[in-house]
Amino acid sequence: MTAVFVDADTGIDDAMALVYLLASPGVDVVGIASTGGNIRVEQVCANNLGLLELCRATSIPVSRGADEPLRGRWPRESKFHGPKGLGYAELPGTRLRLTGHDATAAWIGAARAHPGTLVGLVTGPLTNLALALRAEPELPTLLKRLVIMGGVFGDPDIEANPMAEWNIRVDPDAASEVFAGWAGRRQLPIVCGLDLTRRVAMTPGILARLAAEAGPSPLLGVLQDAMRFYFESHAERGHGYVAFMHDPLAAAVAVDPGLVATRAATVDVELADSPARGITIADRSGGREPNALLGVDVDPAAFFDRFVDRVGSFARRLNA
Ligand SMILES: [Ca+2]
Fold first, then answer.
1. Which Gene3D superfamilies match (predicted)?
2. For the chain, which residues make up each domain, given as ranges?
3. How much is the pTM?
4. Of the listed 81, 114, 234, 246, which one is catalytic?
5. CA 134 / ligand 1 centre spacing (Å)
6. 320: exposed, middle or buried (C-beta count within 10 Å: 0-12, 13-18, 19+)?
7. What is the model's pLDDT at position 60?
8. Which of 143, 134, 128 is nearest to 30 (CA)?
C-alpha cells in the first residue's frame, strides 16, 4: 500500500483528486489537511468531511489548517468553484468531526508514522506544509515523495510566462520556504504547473464515459453537479466548455510519478510587493542547486483512461 497525505483547499478539482485517490487500488489516504484559499477553511473542512462520508471513507482523519497565508491575507475569494467550493454539488450531511490537532501536527505525525514511505500531495496553497517544515525541518527526508500542484512555467525557448498561478500567488512566502527546504535533497518535489495541467482537460464526453462506467450513483451525481459548474467557469473565462484537471493530475502523479516526464530546475518565487508577486521562475540551466522536478509532459489520454476506470468502478462498488 502507498500511504498518501493530502493537503487541499477543496475545491472542485481537489474533490476530483481526492475521489481518484480513494478509488485507486493500493492507495491508503492516511490523512487530509484542509487549507483556506479558494474558500474559507471551515468550508474546506466541511467539504472534506462530506466527501469522505459520500465515499464511505469515514476513518480518514481530517485536520483544520491555515486560514491566512504566512504574511498578509488571502486575496478576494475565487469564484471559480462557487460559494461553497463544489459548484452545484450538495454533499450529504455527516457526523464526522475534525481531529483535535491542526494540519501542521497532522503533516508531521503522518510523516513520522510512515518514515521514508509517505507520499505528500498538496493541491492548495503551501501554507500548512511551510508551517510543518518550520516545525520539522527533516520533512524532506521523512517523505518518500512530494507532489505539488502549483506555479506556471512557460517554455523557456518560447517566452517567459508573466502570470502567477493561484496556489503560489495566494501564499508565495510559503511556496518559497517549501522550495528552499527541499533544495538539494535527494527527492525533489514534483511540481505540476498550469502549463502542464492545462493539457488535461475534462470534456462532457469524458464525463459521460465516466457516468456510463459508474452507472446510477450518488457519487457520480455529486461529481457531475460539480463539473457542470466547473465547465461553466472555464467557458466564462474563454477556455471553452471544458475543465482543466489540475489537482487530479497531481494526485495521479503522486500515485504514479511515471505519468509525467520531469526536468530538474531551480524554482524562484517572486516575493516583492509588486504585481509580479507570486510569479514562479524556473532556472533550468543546471548552474544552481535544483529544488524541483517540473512536470513537462503528460499523456492526457492515459490519465483519463485511468481516471474513468478507477473512479467509475469505485462509484459502482459504493452502490453495491
Ligand atoms: Ca486546489
1. Ribonucleoside hydrolase-like
2. 2-319
3. 0.96
4. 246
5. 23
6. exposed
7. 98
8. 143
Query: 3.90.245.10, 3.40.190.10, 1.10.1060.10, 3.40.50.2300: which CATH number matches 2-319?
Result: 3.90.245.10
User: What is the C-alpha separation between 8 and 31, in angstroms, rounded?
Assistant: 11
Q: What is the mean pLDDT of the chain?
A: 94
Backbone angles phi, psi at 217, to 5 degrees: -160, 130
239 a catalytic residue: no
Q: Which residues contact 110 (CB under 8 A, 6 or more apart)?
A: 3, 5, 30, 31, 118
State the distance from the centre of ligand 1 to the C-alpha of 287, rounded, in angstroms: 32
C-alpha cell at 70: 504566512
Per cent of the chain over pLDDT 70 is 97
pLDDT per residue as tens digits for the range 231-267: 999 999 999 999 999 999 999 999 999 999 999 999 9
Going from the Cα of 24 to the center of ligand 1, the distance in angstroms, rounded, reads 19
Tell me the per-residue pLDDT of 152-170, one tens digit each, with 9 for 90 and over: 997 655 455 567 889 999 9
CA of 213 to the centre of ligand 1 (A): 26
